[in-house]
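Give me C-alpha cells for this 809-residue protein.
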Amino acid sequence: KKERKKERKKGKKTDTSLLVESIGCFQIQGLFILSTRQYQGVLTNRSAGITPTETHQRNPNMGEMSQAAATTASTTSTTTTVTTTVKSTAAKLEALGITAPTSSENEPFNIQAFKSVASTALQSSESESAVIVSHESKIVNILFGSVNGNAMEIARRIYNELEHHGFQKGCLATLNDYALAGLVKEPHSKMHPLIIVCSTTGDGDLPENALKIFKFLRVPKPAAGVSADSAEHDKEKFLKGYLDYTILGLGDTNYENFCNAAKRIDKAVHDAGGKKFYKRGEADDGTGLEQVVEPWIDKLWPKLAELFEKRVHGDGNGAKDGAAAVTATGVDAIVSTLQTASKTTAETTTITETTISVVEGIPAPLEIMCTLNSLDKSVVETPCYPMAIRDQKIYTSKVSDAKLMTSEDMQDRRVWHIELDCSDFPIEYMPGDTLGVVVENRPEDVSRVLERISYPADGMNESTIVQLLRKDTSQVLAQAASIRTLLTRLVDLNQIPKKTLLVSLAEACSNEEEKKLLLFLSSRPGRDQYAEKMKQGNWTFLKLLDEYPSCRPSILLLVDQLPPLAVRYYSASSAQEMDGRKFHAAFSVVNLENNKRGLATGMLEDKCKQYLETKSDSVSVEIVLQPHTQFKPPMDLDMPYIMIGPGTGVAPFRGFLRQRSVLVSKHKKSDNDSALGKTWLFFGCRYEKKDFLYEAELKNFVRDQVLTELTVAFSRDTEKKVYVNDKLLENKAELAKLLMSNSSSKIYLCGDGGSMAASVDKALTEIIQSHPKGENAAEPVYPTEDEAKTILKAWMKEGRYLKDVWYWG
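Here you go.
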C-alpha cells in the first residue's frame, strides 16, 4: 500500500492501472480484471456501440477494413503482452509483500487462489476497486434458424450484447451447425447454456438451416408399457443434466402454425433431456416482432445470471459448474447500477468525432462478421447465393412454354402460366410441392447503392473481384465475385432495415441531424415512429438512402447486415404423372409504385416475354425445389375432397387434377367398378371473360369425371360482388353432409391468407353449425359457433383441413 501511495504522489501508475486505462480490460486464460471506474466507461461506450479501442482510435477518414484492422491489431497486441503484464503485476504484488500465483503457457491460473490474493491487494486501494470475474463459467452459445434474416439478426443482437451483460461469447452458428455448440450424443460434462432463435417457414416448417438439429435430437419413443418419465426411458435422454437452454420463436399469427418451428425444436430438446431456464418467447411478425423480442431479451439477462448462480452453488437439478462465483462487487452489480442510472440520466457519447445525445434503448450495432479479400483481375467469377439456399441443390431450368392467361386490358392484374424444363437434372416432385425461383436485385437499384458506398481499400470499385469470408469461421460466403455481383445476388435492397442496421447507418452519416434521426428511429422511444415509417410506409433501404443523402455505408456493412435475398416460391400446377420432368407454375405480376414490379414476378414476366419472342432454349431461370409436408392430394380415388382456390390459388389444384386424371384413366382401364370419391373445386376471379384461369382445362376435367363439380364466383360480373365464401354458403346443406358424415373427407384452401382465408373459415364454421349433432335425434341439436370453431381447429390439427396461403404486405 505504502509503495503504491508513493508512486501516486510521484504521478506514476501501477502496471495494472496503466493496462486498464489503455485497453479497458485484459483477459488472462478466462480471467478478467477491470477497474470499477474503467469498467463503467467501457459499459457506457458499449451502450452506444463503441469499443474501448474505438473510443481512442476511431478515425472517420479510415475505411471499414482499416478500422477492423486497427481493432484486430490492437487486440493482437494486447494478447501478446498479456504474459509480460501478468508477470509484471505479480512482481509488483510480491514487492508489496504479497505472494501471487504465477502462470505459464502450459499451466493456467488457479482462479480461486488468484481471486483471493488479487482481491485483497487491489480492493484495499482507496481509489481502485477491482472487479475479479471468472468467465469460464459464463460462456453462452447461440444457434439460429433463419430464412429471411430476421432470426439471424436477433441472434446476432443477443450475441453482441453478451459481454455487455457480463457473459462470454461462445459460438454463433446455424442450428445445422449444432456441433459447434458442443451438442453431442454422449456428453461428458455440463454444456454451456444455449440460446436458440428460430423462425417458421412454409406450413409450420423448420428453415433449411435448422433441419439437421431436429434429426440429431430425435429420441426413440418409449417401448410399449414404458412411461416417458420412467428411469428406463431416461437413459435415452442424452442431454439430461447436461444442457440448459431457452428458445425464441418467430412467426406470424396470420398463419395457422404460429411459431411451429420453435415449438417443435423446444419439444425435441426437452424430450432429449434439455432443461429450459427461461420461458419460450413467441414473436409475431403480424403485429411487430419487436413487441415481444425486446422485452424477452431484457428478461433474458437476469435469467442467465440466475442460471450461472445456480450452477455455481448447485440447485439440486444438475452438477455444479466448478468455476468461481461472481462476488457481490462483481460485474452483475455494476451492470445493474449502470442500467438504473442510464434510465435517469442523460448520457453523451463520442461517435467518430461528433457528440450526440444517446437515447435510452438504442441497440448496440452488430459486429461485422465478414471480411473481403481482393483477388487478381484474372480470376473468373463463380456463382454465389444467399444464406437460405447456399447449402441446397440449385438448378438452371429452361423456359419451355409461357402464356398470358388474363385479358390484355387487365394490366393491373396480369397472370402468367410458365413451364420449366427440368429434364437435364434429377428432380422429383408431387402436386402441392413448391419450386423456389432465385432472384436478383434490379440493375438500376444496385447502381444507386454503388454510388453511395465506401470501400475497405483504395483502388476497389464495383468491378473488383473479391472473396467474401466469415471472420470467425473462415467460411466462404462467396468464392469469387465482383462487388456489384455481391449486391445483386446476396442481399435484399428492398427490405425494411432492422434497428441494429439503422445504428450502423447513423454512424455512416456525416450530417449530424440525419445521424440523430436514425438513432432515434432505432431507439425504444422511437418505436412508434419506426413502425409508422418502416412498416406502414414500406420504407426500404433504398428509400432510406434517398432520404439521408449523407449516409455512405461500407460495402462490408451491407453484405454483412442487409437481409439475405430470399427465394420466391410457387406451387406446382403440374403433375409428373402427366407432365414428366416439366414444372408448371402460375404467377400474378406484382405492380409497385414508380412503374416497378416485384423482383420475382417482374423477372419471370420478362422471361416469359423473351421466350415468346424468340422461342429460344437459352431463356432460363435458377430454381430450388421445396417439398411440401402435408398439402398433397389423396392417392385414394374413393376419398372425397373439396378444393378452394380463388385467383392463382387454383394453381396447385390444377396439379392435383392432372395427377388424378392419370389415376382415373388407369382406374377405368382396370375394370374396377368401385365408386370414385367426390371432388369439388370452388374457384373465384373478377370476370368470366377476362381472368377465368385454366377455364377450358377445368371444364374438361368435369367432362371426363376427374372433377365432380366446378363452382365459380365472378366478383365483378354482377352488381353485387360474389366471392368463393358466398358460393360455399349457397351449397351449405350438401357440403355439411359431405364433411360431417364422412370422416375421411378433406378440405384444401390456397390463396390470399388475409380476408379471403378468414371469410372461408367463417363460412365453414356456419356450414358445420348447420349440421345436427345427432342425425337420429327426435329434436336435432346444432353445434354452437364456439363448438363449430373447435371442430374446424381439430380438422386442421388432424390434417383434414389444409391451407397453403400467403400474405401481402
